[in-house]
Amino acid sequence: MYKQRKSIRLKNYDYSQNGLYFITIVTQSHKNLFGEIIDNTMVLNIAGKMIEKIYNEIVIDFSMVRLHKYIIMPNHIHGIIEIVGVPLVGTLETDEHQGQPQGIAPTKPKTIGNIVGAFKSITTNRYIEMVKENILPPFEKRIWQRNYWEHVIRDENSYIKLSEYIVNNPQKWEIDTLNSDNIKLNNKKGTKC
Questions:
Q1: Is the pLDDT of residue 9 over 60?
Q2: Helices in the chain by DSSP H: which ranges?
Q3: Which residues pair with 153 in a beta bridge?
Q4: What are the tens digits of pLDDT across the range 160-174?
Q5: Beta strands 41-44 and 35-38: pairing type?
Q6: What does the buried/exposed string (b/e) look like for 30-68 if buried means 16 or more CB atoms within 10 Å of the residue's CB?
Q7: What domains does the chain contain, in order, with CATH numbers?
Q8: Is residue 26 within 8 Å of residue 144, measured between CB atoms?
C-alpha cells in the first residue's frame, strides 16, 4: 500500500505571495555530484557549474523572482529566493470569430514549489544530456531528492543570519548535517539525520 508523504509546507500559507524564502535542495542519497570543498572553499566541477548556470537563469523564466545569496555545495544547494511584485498573471484571450482581444484569462500565480520544480526538472534534463554526451558519469535513479526544504524569512535578522549561513557553509562542511560522510558516520552509530 502507498504511504502518504507528510507535507513539510506551512498549512494555509500562500507560497506565491511576495516575500523571501530560504530554500535547500539536496541530491538523492546525498551524493556529492557538484564538486568538493578544498581549503574551506567550494570548488565546482562541470556538473556544479551547470547547476549554478541554471540556478542563475531562474529569473529568465520567472520574472517575479530575485535571487539573493546562494551556495552550491557538493550535494545540496542553499539559496534565498525573493518573489517580488507578482505581475498580472494571465494571457490575452482573443475572440475566435473576430480575432479581437477579449480580456485576460487568469492563470495561477507561480509558487516557490513551481520555481524549485522547474529548476530540478531543467537541471535533471541537462544532466541526462551531459551523461549521454559522456561529459558526466551516470547517476542512480534521480539526481534530486523528491522534496526540498524552505523557510519563510520573516524579518531582517533572520535574513542576515541565513545569508551568513550560506556564505559560511563551505567552512562548516566538516560538521554539516548534509555532508554525506557525517550521515554515514551517524547511521553507523545508530542515529538518524
A1: no
A2: 46-56, 58-61, 112-132, 156-168, 180-189
A3: 20
A4: 999 999 999 999 998
A5: antiparallel
A6: bebbbbebeeeebebeebbebbbebbeebeeebebbeeb
A7: 15-87+109-160 (3.30.70.1290)
A8: yes
